[in-house]
Amino acid sequence: METTDGSAGYATLAEALDGLTRRGFSEQFRVVDGGLQALGTGKRFRPDDLVIREFHRFEGMSDPDDMAIVYAIEGKGGIRGTLADAFGVYSDPATGAVLKNVPIRIATTTPCR
């Protein structure tokens, strides 16, 4: 697993989502029309209105279906939330198309132990 928040990281995708929610990334995002929509508020964001604050990638030891990545994203107006996707051959092309235009602004990068 790879992490970018300066901690030892999370063991599972569910643990990451719970931890990020506790840390204020409580909104959930989905890809809509070339941008992201916050599911709770319905507010839509273009890629230039967003910043990726950290991400956590999980690699299945024995099952490629376990490969996932969760992004902690902050939008204009202070909305903070998460977006999860598979990576590799199972990743969603629409998610990749949006996120490639979202800047990553992370204070420190520390590999998992």
Question: Top keywords for this entry?
Answer:
alpha+beta; 113 residues; 2 helices
The major β-sheet equals: 7 strands, mixed
How would you describe the shape?
A: globular
Order of helices and strands: EHEEEEEEH
- Helix count? 2
Counting structural domains, the number is: 1
Which stretches of 5+ consecutive residues score pLDDT under 50?
Answer: 109-113
How would you summarize this macromolecular structure in one to three sentences?
The chain has 113 residues and is of the alpha+beta class. The chain is 15% helix and 34% strand. It has one domain.
List the helices and strands and how they pair.
Elements: E1 2-3, H1 13-22, E2 27-32, E3 35-38, E4 44-45, E5 50-58, E6 68-75, E7 80-86, H2 93-99
Parallel strand pairs: 2-7
Antiparallel strand pairs: 1-5, 2-3, 3-4, 5-6, 6-7
Tell me about this structure.
There is one protein chain. By secondary structure, the chain is an alpha+beta fold. It is built from two helices and seven strands; from the N terminus they run E-H-E-E-E-E-E-E-H. Strands 1-5-6-7-2-3-4 form a seven-stranded mixed beta sheet. The C terminus is likely disordered.
